[in-house]
Please model this.
Amino acid sequence: MRAVRGAIQVDRDDPGEVMEATRLLLEEIMAANSLVHDDLVSIFFTATPDLRSGFPARAARDLGLTDVPLMCAQELDIDGGLPRTVRVLVTAETPLPRDRVRHVYLGGARALRPDLTDRMAGAR
Model:
C-alpha cells in the first residue's frame, strides 16, 4: 500500500473550475501510477480557505469513485501559503516501491514541491 500526494491551483473560486481541476489532478495521479478504481483505498482532500464553492471530493464521485471513502478538510491558513489550491492524498494498493511512486503537482502548485516535480519530470 502506498500514499500518493498531489495538488493543483485554480484561477478562481468557481464550482466548475474547482471540479474540473480536481478531476484532472485525480486522473493524472491515477495515470502516472498505473492505478485503477479497485486499487484505491481512500482519498483525502484539502482546499485552501479561499475555495468555498464546492467539495473537491465531488469530482471523485463524478469520476465514478462512488465506493471509495473520501474526505474533505480545510487546509491550514498560513501566511504566504499558495492560494486557491486543492491538495490530495490518495491511499492505494500498488506494487510500486516507494521510490517509484509519482506524486503529481500541476500548474502553480508545482511550486509547492519542486523537488518532486523535478524528479518526476526526469523520470518521464
